[in-house]
Design brief:
The complex is a heterodimer. In chain A, strand 1 and strand 2 (38-56) form a beta hairpin. In chain A, strands 1, 2, 3, 4, 5, 6, 7 and 8 form an 8-stranded mixed beta sheet that branches. Chain A has 10 helices and 24 strands. Chain A folds into 2 domains: 2-227, PmbA/TldD superfamily (PmbA/TldD fold); 229-483, no CATH class. By secondary structure, chain A is of the alpha+beta class. The longest helix of chain A is centred in the N-terminal third of the chain and has 18 residues, at 70-87. Chain A is 21% helix and 40% strand. By secondary structure, chain B is an alpha+beta fold. Chain B has 2 domains: 11-223, PmbA/TldD superfamily (PmbA/TldD fold); 225-301, no CATH class. In chain B, the strands form 2 sheets. Chain B has a 6-stranded antiparallel beta sheet. Chain B has a two-stranded antiparallel ribbon with strand order 7-8. Classes of the chains: A alpha+beta, B alpha+beta. Strand 3 (59-65) of chain A pairs parallel with strand 2 (51-69) of chain B.
């Protein structure tokens, strides 16, 4: 692979090319699912290919192929340069990159139990056990469980002289119990909705999740929701579980701090950002207790955004985003950092595969743990509504005005659950919402969640991101409007 | 190779690949096997702030093998087409299949049936170059700039092949081209948007689309705050398509299109507050024969 990457780099470095990098990737996937006692998806996949990115005549060009023969690689290198030169037909100014060093590194993510070494029979047997446990509750209409495993090895080489060899292994699993009654469907998922929990780990993640133990509670709650009152409409104190905080961070902190969005690159698709450049160091994003970081370093945890180097050869870093409520940082690339006068990229360029161009993507954008115990988060107010597990999300193209739905809610009085509510929703304005944050649980309750389905870019790239979060309380939030009619 | 004049994968190449799959399957004692074969060669020129900022091309292909054995099935996929990799994919699919519990409701492989041939391959689209796209984008940007607005968008062209073969004798092959141009224009306090998709590049009118987006931005200048409440809403067809895609799932309706009668007014009337989901659904057709349905769910025709 390394030799192939270096050959491709040589081919791309023709006169007029001022920078080039090549990523050669081999990947392996396993997808398993069950549905009402039967196998669903049972599949494996392997892929290999390379992508070449060049800067020629001051413009970017990128071409990718899975034809790894000599002729295929030569043609791809030629095409990358041809594309870059064509871009100059609509050029305003030359691309400038923030400086970066040369690295020669090999890194493999920690993986205690290789998920591909565990038999498919054993993995399916666990999913079917969970499925059977869910359907032991006669009110469960549909039981679904799934596991996914992914490994990729990437060799990155660049004209700076870097040779970076990274191998990362991801695992994910989860289940959902759906209960149908008349024209209503209620659902409970574990450990999270939309595929469960995903981390940069081996099969040990699946063991840690204890899926089977959680199935009876999820089934019971899915059925009980039919008899619950609808979540009331009005303004209430709101407590969110850590998985919903993770998604709230993703949508209302992670996306708006992408500097390419701020600068307009995504204006025709993913959108822009309310965080215009004048707001850097000049905006009270949240209350004093709100701190957020963008941290791709392994010491932050095994997130979907954890790596040693990003996809343009910049080392993983931790960047402060919100410090004591103040907005202090964006996620950057070498190009965007230079465009706003910063000395260095903070290393957030990522691509979904060899076929796609690296873009600024969330790494692990996390809400830092607070100081409260869980009892203090729940008990610090006489009355609140607590919501768990995301069911729907909606936010405008500048990431400012949002509405979320959750699977279940509870009325909380003096720190105790007193009543279940169904169909809970809440809405708000990003900065008003984070400024209303009055309690964040401590590190004992902090989880690094994986969001496996973040979309951005054209052609679209769906990538996994990480979000550390712990349960938090917000004061005087608008709740229930979505079902109020 | 990235030579756009050659087909990504011809019918003959696909048939040979399936023959390799069958040989491997037979040697492993498997008689029921299916292969999905696909390839694409696509390019996309992206612009923002009145300049081209991302400009990409990719060529990819894959072979997905499904084995059926005693009411069990599983799938293995590879993008390497040498004999060893194909055999490995068949072995993987077989190993996965043996791991699965039998499903008495599993359908057997489909028998051969007439497959309508839908011509949707346009050589001009397949041959479009980076310079072709960049020139069109440059002209669109010039028009937007002359209106005092800022443009962002994409111009993509490409071709794709999809084929299905199975041991019952099914041998289906389809190739098509697709081009898409979409543009967002931004003025001081307003914006406009337009998009079109087509199989034939000659039908694509980037300048007209840029003009339409510019007009929308101009006409929506000085927007007024609209108080919350119930209103009659008129949606243009592209907005309806996005709504339908969200409601019913683009993957569930891979070739859906809005009924040809769905002018914006007709649709708005049928989407009144009292419209039931079934009424809405009755206006959705799944018609792969229609020439404009190429990737309609993604294209927003």
């Amino acid at each position: 692979m390394k030799q192939l990457a270096l050959q491709a780099l040589d081919l791309a470095l023709v006169p007029g090319v001022t920078y080039a990098d090549v990523r050669v990737i081999e990947s392996r996937d396993r997808d398993l699912s069950t549905k009402n006692g039967k196998p669903g998806q049972v599949s494996s996949a392997e892929s290999a290919g390379l992508g070449i990115r060049v800067l020629a005549d001051g413009c970017w060009g990128f071409a990718a192929t899975d034809d790894l023969g000599k002729a295929g690689v030569e043609a791809t290198a030629r095409l990358a340069v041809e594309i870059a030169r064509s871009s100059a037909l609509a050029k305003k100014r030359d691309i400038v990159l923030a400086p970066e060093n040369k690295y020669e590194v090999t890194w493999t993510s920690p993986c205690r139990i290789d998920p591909f070494s565990v038999s498919v029979e054993e993995q399916l047997a666990l999913l079917l056990s969970v499925d059977a446990e869910l359907r032991r509750n006669s009110g469960v209409t549909l039981a679904q469980a799934a596991m996914v495993f992914h490994r990729n090895r990437q060799i990155f080489v660049s004209s700076l002289g870097s040779v970076i060899d990274q191998t990362r292994t991801f695992s994910g699993a989860g289940f959902e119990a759906l209960s149908f009654r008349e024209d209503e469907i209620q659902k409970r998922s574990y450990p999270n909705s939309f595929g469960g929990q995903h981390q940069l780990k081996g099969y040990e993640l699946i063991q840690e999740l204890a899926l089977l133990d959680q199935a009876p509670r999820a089934a019971e709650e899915a059925v009980a929701l039919h008899s619950a009152d609808r979540c009331p409409e009005g303004r209430f104190d709101l407590i969110l579980d850590s998985s919903q905080i993770g998604l709230q961070v993703h949508e209302s902190i992670g996306h708006p701090i992408e500097l390419d969005r701020v600068l307009g690159s995504e204006a025709n698709y993913a959108g822009m950002s309310f965080l215009t450049l004048d707001k850097l160091n000049n905006l009270r994003y949240g209350s004093e207790i709100v701190n957020a970081v963008c941290d791709a370093r392994p010491e932050h945890g095994p997130g979907l955004g954890t790596f040693a180097f990003d996809d343009e050869g910049v080392p993983a870093q931790s960047a402060d985003i919100i410090r004591n409520g103040q907005f202090v940082g964006y996620m950057t690339s070498r190009e965007t950092a230079a465009a706003v006068g910063q000395q260095r990229s903070n290393g957030t360029m990522r691509a979904t595969s060899w076929a796609r161009l690296p873009l600024i993507r969330m790494t692990n954008v996390s809400l830092s743990p607070g100081e409260q115990t869980l009892d203090e988060v729940f008990g610090g107010v006489s009355h609140a509504i607590a919501m768990e597990t995301n069911k729907s999300w909606s936010i405008d193209d500048k990431r400012y005005n949002f509405q979320f739905g959750c699977e279940i809610a509870w009325e909380i009085r003096d720190g105790k659950r007193v009543r279940m509510y169904k169909n809970p929703t809440y809405s708000g304005i990003t900065t008003e919402f984070w400024n209303s944050c009055v309690a964040i649980a401590n590190r004992d309750h902090w989880t690094l969640w994986g969001v496996p389905n973040c979309g951005k870019g054209q052609p679209e790239q769906v990538i996994g991101t990480g979000h550390g979060a712990s349960p938090s309380r917000f004061h005087n939030i608008k709740i229930g409007a979505a079902y109020a009619g | 190779m990235l030579d756009s004049l050659a087909p990504v994968l011809s019918f003959t190449e696909c048939r040979r690949l399936f023959e390799s799959v069958q040989r491997a399957a037979k040697s492993l004692g498997v008689s029921d096997v299916e292969a999905l074969i696909a390839g694409h060669r696509e390019a996309l020129t992206r612009f923002a702030n009145n300049t081209i900022h991302q400009n990409v091309a990719e060529q990819a292909q894959w072979l997905s093998v499904r084995v059926l054995l005693d009411h069990r099935t599983a799938r293995a996929t590879t993008n390497r087409f040498d004999e060893d990799s194909i055999r490995s994919a068949v072995e993987q699919a077989l190993a996965l299949t043996k791991s699965v519990a039998p499903d008495p409701d599993l359908l057997s492989l489909a028998p051969p049936a007439p497959i309508p041939r839908i011509p949707r391959f346009d050589p001009t689209t397949a041959e479009a170059t980076p310079v072709d796209r960049a020139r069109a984008v440059s002209e669109a940007i010039r028009l937007v700039e002359s209106a005092g607005q800022t443009a962002a968008g994409i111009y993509s062209t490409g071709q794709a092949v999809e084929a299905i073969f199975n041991s019952q004798g099914v041998a289906g092959w389809h190739s098509e081209t697709a081009a898409q141009f979409s543009i967002t224009t931004m003025a001081k306090d307003s914006s406009g948007w337009a998009k079109a998709s087509t199989a034939a590049l000659s039908e694509m009118e980037p300048i007209e689309l840029a003009r339409r987006a510019c007009d929308k931005a101009r006409l929506s200048a000085n927007p007024q705050e609209l108080p919350p409440g119930h209103y009659t809403v008129v949606l243009e067809p592209a907005a309806v398509l996005d709504l339908v895609g969200q409601m019913f799932g683009a993957s569930a309706l891979p070739l859906c299109t809005i009924n040809a009668a769905s002018s914006p007014i007709v649709w708005a009337r049928n989407c009144s507050a009292t419209t039931s989901i079934s009424t809405t659904m009755s206006r959705i057709r799944c018609s792969p024969e229609l020439p404009t349905t190429a990737r309609a769910c993604r294209g927003g025709n």
